[in-house]
# Entry
Amino acid sequence: MNRQQIQETVLDVLGQIAPEADPRSLDPKVSLRDQLDIDSMDFLNFLIALDKQLQVDIPERDYGRLMTLDACVDYLLARQTVNRTGG
Amino acid sequence: MAEFVMPKLGADMSAGTLTCWRKKVGDVVRRGDIIAEVETEKGNIDVEVFADGTIEEFLIAPGEKVPVGTVLALIRQHGQPPEPAPTIARPAAATSPETAETRPSRPKIVPGQRAAPKTLERLAISPAARRLARELGVDPATVTGTGHGGAITREDIEQAAASKTTASAQPPPEANAPPALRAARIRQTIAAAMSRSKREIPHYYLSTTIDMHRAIEWLSEENARRPVAERILYGAIVLKAVALALDEVPELNATWENGQVVLKKQIHVGVAIALRQGGLVAPALHDTDKLALGELMRRMRDLVNRTRAGSLRSSEMSDPTITVTSLGEQGVDAVYGVIYPPQVAMVGVGKIVERPWCAGGKVVPRRVVTVTLAADHRVSDGHRGGIFLAALDRLLQEPDKL
# Structure
């Protein structure tokens, strides 16, 4: 999956978690939690959905690298490559 | 014959609208099956049945709004022959003259609840009082008359209007109400419950700071082994610890009903869940003390997701025996709760923060959390509340045993 596709997937998942918000209007460099008022349960649901759709298991120690939209997409892109070369 | 009645799904619910039946006449139902959907201020609730049997008759049609306690359906319990069912409109052949005179038709006895409200036709109320009731949005069927022969007076209506904002004062529920309207109704429900709480419950407040170092370390190790869908949030650990700590101070796991404390054998911790459109709901996580952490987490996630999607079960709405509220995610150090009546205690959990901490004669950085207890002084004293918080602290120091 390329960067664009990953970003679309992330935005879709965010849209399910915060239905009243418009994920497309997010500032990609500002904290997702602050912009979408998501709590730890929302965040966990977000990770579970990403895991399901992208087959990327995100360990807890990496949660801090998923704080903004840009960071999220960067991380998932890198992680996907690692997974592919690794497997 | 068992009666299925409009359940009371919250301290201040006085009426509900039957949205639809989920079963048909002749269907076999078992205790816990979802039989109907009811619209309340807090959304559509899946209502469970409390008897095993076969549905004999539906007495209320979808779309009707009826007071709490109204018989909605009759269920023939197994082993009983089919019998001609008495209906609401046709008062039951009284078992004794006494019951016929002193009770409204088809009385229903639920421990801890009032008998079914009087039907409008039977109310002793003057036209003036009735008009006032309409103006003030009070349902006369929910008012106890103090006038001659139990008649409802204008004063009774005024008092009812002043003392509680009941569901009847709110706009009539509609299925699929727009979010803004639903949010406004939830606001009113919270207003009514919290006003009652602060008016009636003499709260006392305690607070303690708990070292979370061990719990967090243990949780990180545990979660490193778990796939993302099975990971545990620290909130689940706190819920379990609260449930177990209640074992030492059982009087906090109770309700206050009709002037006395009713201790609860089962521990159903209410989880305060903020809704995206505003407001909150605190449904019960059933048998919190008996669930292994992984299972507790799964159920908590399911409960939060269903609460936010607006599909709770009736027992989850009416069952909490104590509530836990957590505002740490908003960066709040400590939260002092307002007890949700008829419960008698609320535990507040703040944010986990790193603070200088003295241990073994040294100052070290430690992650700590401030946990508070708001409790009903009619039921418990600060001394007992302190024992509860100490037990909670102790349990959180041994997370592997939770």
